[in-house]
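Database export, one record per block. Field names are fixed; values are copied verbatim from the stored entry.
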Amino acid sequence: MKFTTPAEVFSAIEKGFKPEKADRNAVIQVHLNGNNGGDWVLTVQDRQLNVRQGTSDHATMTMSMSAKDWVDMVNGDAKPMSLFMMGKIKVQGDMGLALKLQEMFF
């Protein structure tokens, strides 16, 4: 399935979550700018995922990027490391968690 908006991704992300790969508890803040952008919080606790729109004051890691790049990345049309190296993804907090995200979802 190809996603067209971040909202579609976040509504399906729980189905794409791989609990066996979630070896730590974390609060992930995702900030997407541009068309269809917004803020979402992914909370991983005891190998379970909770997704909500909004922000958290207790994020383990914050990832900021354009909504278009997010959708392209999730669809496999853009590589996360390439986006990061080009400065299109900004990460604050636990960089190890950022690297693990690809394993945990879809």
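Remark 1: The radius of gyration is 13 Å.
Remark 2: Residues 19 and 47 are 5 Å apart (CA to CA).
End of record.
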